[in-house]
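Quick log. Single chain, no ligands specified.
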Amino acid sequence: MPRQARVIVPGFPHHIVQRGHNRQPVFVERRDFEYYLANLQEWKQVYELEVFSYCLMTNHVHLVVYANDNVTAIPQLMKRLAGRQTRFLNALEKRSGSLWEGRYKISPIDTDAYLLACCRYVELNPVKAGMVDSAESYEWSSYSARVGLSPCHWLDEPDTFRALAGNHEMRVEAYRQFVEQKNDLQSDELIRSAINSNKLTGGNKFVDEIEKRIGIRVETRKPGRPASGK
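-> predicted structure:
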């Protein structure tokens, strides 16, 4: 069965997942997490990309990155992040070899319908994995910074977040309530399926729009009901 091609669409946010080689741990000590985030901050600025959400799990990374007009920017970002982390850990542990799977996964996101749901999905990963009881308890995701519990001056704020309410405090509260909903959203399965297969996070209308933009046929599917933080 042919491998689904990775699609990058300028002007849209993208959900990205990079897994450790054979799903082995990539982040073990605090230094590992801190080094990756320092490089993410550096290279997102070099390539003029916006990062809306992130979560560093022990054996994989989730990012939500807005693609600019340079379609090579995200591939270069991921290459730099993977390469630096590999050299860093190999030098510390006096080892050699690959740290990551060969190919990261990426899914363009229908901004209005699914961006906040995708950020929620990313930031709830540690909760779903049973590592913490709440998203704010996990140090290595963007959630605590988004709701003002920790500083992260380089985390970007999407328009859909700003549209939640008239002032920042109300936006934070609206987003907090959205993330803390007890049940899975109907969009969660669509997000999971899309990133696992390098497809689009959106319904048929979004698929049609992207097909026209990039001139590549993308397999359609039944749209899930989008979840909104509004």
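The mean pLDDT is 91.
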